[in-house]
């Protein structure tokens, strides 16, 4: 009996569409399966669409700089220039984060990029922020409010507690550890957070060219340790504890998309700027010069050379390109802080008294007296709560024992400590 011979048995076919190698441009053959170039392109399109969709879903919803500014206006009094600078800087930073997520989504497994344009190879560097200003002007509060509107994890670190690795104190990686904890362990979400490092001026070199014979573990060394994580690197962070050990569990976090905001009072920086501007020279045969800038505007003319002379490393300053100067708060500013913001201090105490069905009232003269006291003490907005606590301490101690008080009135005399706040009793008369 004759045998039927098939001449197509040796021709491989695409496992997905069934076409043979003569019907397609390229056929990739593997053990037990084959795929043609047409099916590969179809798979690439499907994967790219899914990645693009995931990037759009995971992208941060960005408010415009004007919306960020208006939100800051609701909570922070004054500092309009600083708020405008921060609004633009934060918007650009997270626009860059979203842009990188979309670019990553369009990148194929083989490393080829879809829809390449003339700017496809351009990488946008991040711009961290340096805030300068005296204590109590709102540096930390501005950073907290920014994190709230952007809905990203936020932590505050104190530069004075940081030391070089191997010395007693906190390693710089502990800042990242706290950010991961603030993200409930979500490392990817932590990689888009905000870290505010306070007292950054305290790690400046104070000795100038005169190097100490002992190791500076909390000054220049900390600046060197902060350089890489501020610029952007993949850092190994211990899951628990403050030190990395050989057998300790660690996680890796990419800091390229973390926004670092550094703040400090920089006491004495005005003198350095004034000398550079030639404001005055002292000594025999001195030539007195007058600059156009007043004392209040001197800090606003700071440049990188002034910060280097103050004690910051040039490469550290280069990683903080956005510099914003916050002004001293006036009595009028402090009066607004007490009354105007959504969570104003007086509103907070009024809410506390309202729990006991008592109305708390501050007269205009009392508000002015409180603001004036804060300015005289040099504590800024940070000292307002302490002043109000002192004024209301006796009243808050006695109030729970009196059920006939309808209102507590704080006047100028009570604000200056000359008398106690006045308790208005109406319920007893109403019952009678």
UniProtKB/TrEMBL annotation:
Source domain of life: Bacteria
Keywords for this protein: ATP-binding, Chaperone, Hydrolase, Metal-binding, Nucleotide-binding, Protease, Zinc
UniProt xrefs under CDD domains: RecA-like_ClpX
Binding sites annotated in the UniProt record for Zn(2+): 14, 17, 36, 39
Residues forming coiled coils: none
GO MF, one annotated term: unfolded protein binding
Pfam families, sorted: AAA_2, ClpB_D2-small, zf-C4_ClpX
GO biological process, one term: proteolysis involved in protein catabolic process
Domain ClpX-type ZB as annotated: residue spans: 1-55
Residue sites binding ATP per the record: 134-141
NCBIfam families linked to this entry: clpX (TIGR00382), PRK05342.1 (NF003745)
Family in the record: Belongs to the ClpX chaperone family.
Role, per record: ATP-dependent specificity component of the Clp protease. It directs the protease to specific substrates. Can perform chaperone functions in the absence of ClpP.
Protein name per its UniProtKB record: ATP-dependent Clp protease ATP-binding subunit ClpX
Source organism of the structure: Bifidobacterium catulorum
Source taxonomy: Bacteria, Bacillati, Actinomycetota, Actinomycetes, Bifidobacteriales
């Amino acid at each position: 009996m004759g045998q039927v011979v098939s001449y197509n048995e040796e021709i491989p076919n695409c496992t997905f569409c069934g076409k043979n190698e003569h019907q397609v441009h390229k056929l990739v053959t593997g053990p037990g399966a084959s795929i043609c170039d047409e099916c590969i392109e179809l798979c690439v399109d499907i994967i790219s669409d899914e990645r693009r969709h995931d990037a759009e879903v995971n992208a941060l919803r960005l408010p415009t700089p004007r919306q960020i500014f208006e939100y800051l206006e609701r909570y922070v009094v004054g500092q309009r220039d600083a708020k405008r600078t921060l609004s633009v800087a934060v918007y650009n930073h997270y626009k860059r984060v979203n842009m990188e997520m979309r670019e990553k989504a369009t990148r194929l497994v083989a490393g080829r990029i879809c829809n390449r344009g003339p700017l496809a190879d351009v990488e946008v560097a991040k711009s961290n922020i340096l805030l300068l200003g005296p204590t109590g002007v709102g540096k930390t509060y501005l950073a907290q409010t920014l994190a709230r509107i952007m809905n990203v994890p936020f932590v505050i670190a104190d530069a004075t507690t940081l030391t070089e690795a191997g010395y007693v104190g906190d390693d710089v990686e502990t800042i990242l550890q706290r950010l991961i904890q603030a993200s409930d362990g979500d490392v990817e979400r932590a990689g888009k957070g905000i870290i505010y490092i306070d007292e950054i001026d305290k790690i400046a070199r104070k000795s100038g060219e005169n190097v100490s014979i002992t190791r500076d573990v909390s000054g220049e060394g900390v600046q060197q340790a902060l350089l890489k994580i501020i610029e952007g690197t993949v850092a190994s962070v211990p899951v628990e504890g403050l030190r990395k050990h050989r057998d300790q569990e660690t996680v890796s976090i990419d800091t390229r998309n973390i926004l670092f905001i550094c703040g400090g009072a920089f006491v004495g920086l005005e003198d350095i700027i004034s000398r550079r501007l030639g404001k005055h020279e002292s000594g025999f045969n001195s030539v007195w010069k007058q600059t156009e800038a007043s004392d209040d505007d001197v800090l606003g003319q700071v440049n990188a050379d002034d910060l280097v002379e103050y004690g910051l490393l040039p490469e550290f300053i280069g990683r903080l390109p956005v510099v914003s100067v916050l002004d001293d708060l006036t009595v009028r500013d402090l009066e607004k802080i007490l009354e105007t913001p959504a969570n104003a201090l007086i509103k907070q105490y009024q809410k506390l008294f309202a729990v006991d069905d008592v109305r708390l009232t501050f007269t205009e003269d009392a508000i002015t007296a409180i603001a004036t006291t804060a300015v005289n003490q040099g504590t800024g907005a940070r000292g307002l709560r302490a002043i109000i606590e002192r004024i209301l301490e006796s009243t808050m101690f006695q109030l729970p024992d009196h059920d006939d008080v309808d209102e507590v009135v704080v006047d100028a005399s009570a604000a200056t400590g000359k008398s106690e706040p006045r308790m208005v009793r109406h319920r007893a008369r109403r019952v009678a």
